[in-house]
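Justification of computing resources. Each target in the renewal requires a structure prediction run like the one illustrated here; the chain below, 486 residues long, is used simply to show the kind of job we budget for.
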Amino acid sequence: MRKNRLYSTLIGCLLASTLFAASRLTVVAVVDGLTADNLNALRLYWQQGGLRTLSEEAYQTTLAFPHLVYGGNETTATLMTGTTPSEHGYTMDRYFLRRDRKLHSMLEDEQAKGIGTEQRVSARALLSPTIADRMRLQYPYAKIYAVGLDAETSVLLAGHAANACCWLDADKQAWVATAAYSEGLPSSAYEMNQNGRIAQLAAHQWIPRMDIPAYTNPTDQERKRGFSYEVSKTLRRAPEANTLVIELALALQKSEKMGTDGTPDLLLLQLNSLSPQAECDRIRSAEHEDMYLWLNQDLGYLMDQLNRRIGREHYQLLVVGRPALGTALQTMTDIHMPVRPFNVDRAAALIGTYLMAIYGHERWVDGGYGQSIYLNRTLIEQKRLNLGDIQRQVATFLLEFEGIQSAMPAHEAILVPQLNRSLCKRHTGDVVFTLQPGWQLMQDDRHTIDHVIDDRPQSPLLFWSGTLRPMPEGKLTATDVADLIF
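Resulting structure tokens:
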């Protein structure tokens, strides 16, 4: 009996391996602001289209994030690497550099020349291998391309080993790229820049697909006047941006013959579900609802084209949401849970004044960003003071600030599980703090750091495969996504 079970297990593994090998092309789409609540609320609208197919045929679940979520690409890095910020190193979109006491893009790389853009970015700062990197390691001749709507997300999708990575420059109305990848700007992107397709879509006027009464969430203003946008002025958050991403992805699939041979290939896409006036991820307007209707159509077009070109049994599609705006501040206020701002710059300035009163009139604090205070270590060493003593003094002083939940020297953050997973020692300051519920992290009075004030945001995941393959049971976390593909 035991031997029979062993044989059954081996046969099952071989069958699963054979079925997976039939998936010649994997498409991963990360969608800004996509939520399970929105998908469920609009299910009745989808008589056909990509979201309709996914809702009926795909494996579906929601993902929890085991680390702090700010609404930036820390979530993209986690989804793509299967690790937390403490391992992949992408804690926030920006980081504080002690050398010049300024904020820098996490993926800034002066050695990576931009193609059609002044932006210099690469995946050099990403410490963990991504889905693209794992695909390259397993299949050296795989064709791997990333197409997105902004530089940081696109590079995180591409990882270290993609053939090329490009993104849409909404101002220039052109595809741009980074020379960090061997193929630079793909020929398909160059052709689209030259043939006027981007300008053609940008010239559209975005108006409702349906009569306003047919929407479930129109605002009072929309009930009176509807909505209308010149796409050229809001291209990044217009339906046409998703259309352009899908069209370029299909052009790459055709020109590179992706999914047509025995070597698995990988397309990684960034899409958007947020409308121009959206203040939260959850739908609160007809225009936001309209974005989902267009997204459904674009995903349907992608699947229809792949069905015809390579056959539905030869590709798989994974769609996953990325928390971007969280819950609207007004929504929190309406349920009597007002959100108050915590100004990190002001806190750093007050700490500097406090240390001056103790140790003399010197610049004792380099600055503050995120949940860190950066002390002037050079000065502390010159004065032959004990860094640990000053860290504890600052932590104790911070506890007196309104809104502070906890404060500690950075090396003690390892004792706090969520902080331990959320911080990377390369970018963490000398003193770390957390905020009480109902407080929002601000760089200053105008610039928000923490867009997602939800305690535990979750993202929907839909995984469609043209072949039968085993799927995990139970709830998943964001670190499990990469393993679904391999």
